[in-house]
Each structure stands twice: as C-alpha cells, then as structure tokens.
C-alpha cells in the first residue's frame, strides 16, 4: 500500500479526441514547415517567415496554450 494515497499518478489525463486534435494540429505545422523549406531559395523572405512562425507555433502551443508546461507541478513535493 502506498504511503500517501492522495498523490497517485493521474491516468488518462487527456481524452483520446483531445490527443488526436493536438497531434493533427502539430503535424500540420510540421508539414507546413517542410513545404516552406522546399520553397526556401534565399531570395524571398516569406518561406523563412513561415518557418519561424511554425517554430513559434510548435513551441508555444504545447507550452502556453494547452498548458503542458506545468502539468507535473502537482506531483512535485
């Protein structure tokens, strides 16, 4: 038996549909980045701007918008 039954790990923190939506959005960002790399020829600024926006989106969507940055704080003592 566990010493503290209140601090059990959370199982199924996200529903399946939420996980699928997050995966589809981030995969679309990844594919858009690949397409932008294929257009990159260093004479126009738009493909690099798209790549930077893809990076910002792929970094900040999990960290800030769906709040994955603090998901483990309730288990740290």
Question: Would you kindly provide a brief summary of this structure?
Answer:
With 77 residues, this protein is mostly helical. The protein is 57% helix and 0% strand.
Using brief descriptors, characterize the structure shown.
77 residues, mainly alpha, 0% strand
Would you write up a description of this structure?
Helix 1 runs antiparallel to helix 2 (46-65). It is built from two helices and no strands. The two termini are 19 Å apart. The protein is mainly α. The protein has a domain at 25-67. It has helices spanning 16-39, 46-65. It is elongated.
Secondary structure blueprint with pairings:
Blueprint: H1 16-39, H2 46-65
Class inferred from helices and paired strands: mainly alpha
Distance between the termini: 19 Å
Low-confidence stretches: none
Oligomer: single chain
| Counted beta strands | 0
What spatial form do the alpha-carbon principal axes imply? elongated
Rg from Cα: 18 Å
In percent terms, what proportion of residues is strand? Answer: under 5%
Largest sheet: none
Counting DSSP H or I runs of 4 or more residues, the number of helices is: 2
Helix content: 55-70%
**Averaged pLDDT:** 77
SSE pattern, N- to C-terminal: HH
